[in-house]
Amino acid sequence: MENQNTEPITNEQQEVQPQEVPQQELPIKSELEIAIEKIAELEVANVTLKDQLLRKAAEFENYKRRTDQNSINFAKYASENIILELLPIIDDLSRSLKLGKEKSENDPFYKGVELILAKFHKILEVQGVKSMESIGKEFNVDFHDVMMQIPRTDIAEHIIIDEIEKGYFLNDKVIRHAKVVVATSPSESIKQSEEVKN
Question: Is the full-model pTM beyond 0.90?
């Protein structure tokens, strides 16, 4: 047997030799922990999707409600333009009857015009048209247009004393304002005439 060199290792030599550093073991996630994290992510995604779905459903309901309301309004007021075209004819027939009444109520022509006007009113009534009753009521800018003011002491101010042209509603909407004559106090009319002069 050969004699091996077995010299003792000094402290210096020990320091020179590289020491092995033990590797730190990274914690390995178990399948259970991974599944729990995945479930948490899916729950967050589920809440987000549910919120988006509820918002879309609400938007759709609002859209549907608006569309339905627009359809109802269209059907309700679709005839407005043709009715507005017919109103001047009704005005003319009414004026003819007013003038003819003074001459002869027994005239067959007068009775014929009266029947035609009654039929017109019936058709308009079926379509949802109503005439305004203005005489004796207080002036209201939403329903009336003032054509003239007459000073009166026997009637309160702003009361309608005459109607030049009838106003009409289509269902609940004003389609034509009534053109009216309104009573004013005598002092008010004097004040207005002085303002005009100045």
Answer: no
